[in-house]
UniProtKB/TrEMBL annotation, chain A:
Keywords, alphabetical: 3Fe-4S, Electron transport, Iron, Iron-sulfur, Metal-binding, Transport
The keyword Transport belongs to this UniProt entry's keyword annotation: yes
Annotated protein name in UniProt: Ferredoxin
Function as written in the Swiss-Prot or TrEMBL entry: Ferredoxins are iron-sulfur proteins that transfer electrons in a wide variety of metabolic reactions.
Chain segments annotated as coiled-coil in the UniProt record: none
From TrEMBL, chain B:
GO-annotated molecular function: oxidoreductase activity, acting on NAD(P)H
PANTHER family the UniProt entry points to: APOPTOSIS-INDUCING FACTOR 1, RIESKE DOMAIN-CONTAINING PROTEIN-RELATED
Keyword Flavoprotein carried by entry: yes
SUPFAM superfamilies (alphabetical): FAD/NAD(P)-binding domain, FAD/NAD-linked reductases, dimerisation (C-terminal) domain
GO CC annotation: cytoplasm
Domain FAD/NAD(P)-binding per the UniProt entry, residue ranges: 9-313
Organism domain of life: Bacteria
Name the UniProt record assigns to this protein: FAD-dependent oxidoreductase
Cofactor (UniProt): FAD
InterPro entries reported in the protein's UniProt record: FAD-oxidoreductase/Apoptosis (IPR050446), FAD/NAD-bd_sf (IPR036188), FAD/NAD-binding_dom (IPR023753), FAD/NAD-linked_Rdtase_dimer_sf (IPR016156), Reductase_C (IPR028202)
Keyword terms of this UniProt record: FAD, Flavoprotein, Oxidoreductase
Domain annotation Reductase C-terminal: ranges: 336-406
Amino acid sequence: MRTVVDLTRCQGYAQCVFLAPDVFRLHGEEGLLYAPAVPDDQVERVRRAAAACPVQAILLGEEVSGGAR
Amino acid sequence: MHGELTDGRIVIVGASLAGLRAAEALRAQGFTGSLTVVGDEPHPPYDRPPLSKQVLLGIAPADSTGLPMRADPKAEWLLGVRATGLDPLARRVLLDGGESLPYDRVLIATGTRARPWPNPAEAALDGVFTLRTREDAAGLAERLDAGPERVLVIGGGFTGSEIASACRERGLAVTVTERGPAPLVGALGGTLSKLAAVMQRNHGVDLRTGATVTRLLGDGRFTGAELSDGSRVDADVCVVALGAIRNVEWLAESGLAAGPRGLACDAGCRAFTMYGIVTDDVFVAGDVSRFPHPLFGYQLLSLEHWGNAVAQAEVAAHNMVSPGPLRRPHLALPTFWSTQFGLNIKSVGVPTYSDHVVIAQGSLEARRLAMVYGYRGRVTAAVTVDMAKVLEYYQHLIETAAPFPPPPGAADRALAAEIPVPSDVPDPSVLSHGPTVALTGYVPDRRLTVV
């Protein structure tokens, strides 16, 4: 699974940092850094983080499969 | 309903953020016909902002930033295939290799590419990079892992500043050259650019402003550069961060209004022909577009913003399958963010469309503030540094054309600094870095000086 955060929306509430600290972390006071590739054992945590995000900025999903034809 | 397109053929040219979000939105709108996405990169859609942040910091590998889908658009993905032309009369997208794809509607979302170093021989030196693609980021991250003696970053825009920030965080020596008076000045104006310069120097960046690189040195391998002030920088890695070029060359014979600033379209994302006549089956979204915005005098805006790619793709997709009266305008305000030197910078509106600024909350000394930009007495933009939560309030002021300087509202006290100062937005031609927000129309009181 992959995650992407809409950082235009993100206001640094950092709920995701508490719920999935291995994936999301704060960089400075409110800048968010995250690992876009979510390991299987973190998927549930990221799902919870996405649900808890006050500005609903987190998307979790599959990436488009395939490559050059 | 008449004019609604639920079946037929849609081709999206460009397989990055805007292309993916448009494909998803078309399906969400009920389009069940054939959907083909053409992309010249061999990868499925991936996210670029992490390439200058997480990837260079070593938090995420370059090939891990694939974009998640909201829902599988069940599209045919032609990846690693370049579109070479558009025949609007035959309604076909021409592909490299001679094939062509018929369409009823086409969306152009070909984005931008990194502006290369102008001297091809110097640009080809081992150790000279640009940063736009997954491959660029992987190559640069590998060099940073190897622990170079010094990294030279040419251009003090957002990308150049983020690269410098990542280098310093990794303990690497870094020199930044910027032709303008300070980093980020083209995007944020004079006052905040001074803060950006202080942050860079405090974090140990060797910042050279008012200087350009005149020559890259090396014999096969990059070894350093000569500067316009006569000095020389010894470095073993060079990142050219001179802004972006719109991918419009493939449209040269199409008769569309495509040029260096992008492909012009109306507020409904419909492309214009070179005669200024709006088309009805060619749509545009993302960095390659140039669109009018009522809040900024209906000037055509060229943006290189993540949020704009998403918002415009959604509007374009809606309009591609909707009859005329149900079409929507793309009116989203430009917004962007940057994380560098431990600060979170966020912007809404068009800061360069301003004559004065005022610090409405916080202070430069605290490195935490909200700066509001005004043009002829109304609020046109706001930038926060580590104060993202208040940005929405100022966004509302911009959307309602509120008077400038703004009344205290989000703040529980008077404006932090009562006196507006000139916004000090320079002529973009004096900068090394390309602006990521560009007004491309005529502003009567802005007489650009030629340097």
